[in-house]
Design brief:
With 224 residues, this protein is an alpha/beta fold. The protein is built from eight helices and nine strands. It starts with 20 loop residues before the first strand and ends in a 5-residue tail after the last strand.
């Protein structure tokens, strides 16, 4: 309602490469969630360009963006965002329902992912019958069912106990080992340490990037 303009993301020029594993960190209000929403095509930039796999997403209409999300992106949310009326199997298959031409093996794929995340015996259960860790496993399987190019997660282990969190992070390590591109927002140093690189934000800018393998920290022009 006021006249002050707040730039949630301010002049960032950055590139994430296929197959990389990133964590995004920063204090509340630093722009982490906005960055994730832009990467996931949930928001559009008011200025500038976002290219996903070389495609300018700003030139796509809402239907084309929805199709792109359903085919190329996988989302994992802290609050799970499961549909309470659907059982585990149908929740996993939700992204396929939005595809104009869903794969014929979609159900078989969903069942295999449920097995992989340890929920093969919970397919007919609804979210209210699951623990927090089990609901997050459903969310992970749902994010993978469309074989996405990019997996995005917002505090994916924030609501989990330490043992379940460790199991989920191990699964993420396996996905990265299979060549998946992962970008996670987190406030936990132990979670960020699992990634290859950590991008630290502040006031809508990229302040620095840390390579976890070498410990090298690179400060960017945005930090000035």
């Amino acid at each position: 309602m006021g006249e002050e303009v707040v730039n949630a993301i301010d002049g960032i020029d950055f590139e994430f490469l296929r197959g990389q594993y990133w964590s995004i960190m920063g204090p509340s209000g630093s722009g982490k969630s906005t960055m994730l929403n832009l990467l996931g095509c949930l928001d559009r930039p008011s200025e500038g360009t976002y290219r996903l796999g070389g495609e300018d997403t700003g030139k796509l209409d809402d239907d084309a963006l929805s199709e792109l999300r359903s085919r190329r992106l996988g989302f994992i949310f802290q609050s799970y965002n499961l549909i309470p009326q659907l059982d585990v199997l149908d929740n996993i298959m939700v992204p396929l329902m939005y595809q104009s031409d869903p794969p014929p093996d979609g159900e078989a794929r969903a069942r295999e992912l449920a097995r992989r995340v340890g929920l093969a015996d919970r397919l007919s259960h609804r979210p209210r019958e699951l623990s927090g860790g089990q609901m997050q496993r459903v969310a992970i399987a749902r994010a993978l069912v469309n074989d996405p190019d990019l997996i995005l997660a917002d505090e994916a282990t924030g609501n989990l106990d330490s043992q379940t969190s460790a199991e989920i992070l191990t699964l993420f390590d396996e996905l990265h080992g299979e060549g998946k591109t992962l970008i996670f927002v987190t406030h936990e140093d132990t979670v960020a340490a699992r990634a290859e690189r950590v991008l630290v934000m502040g006031d809508g800018k990229v302040l620095h990037v840390r390579d976890n393998a070498t410990g090298e920290v690179k400060y960017t022009e945005n930090a000035s």
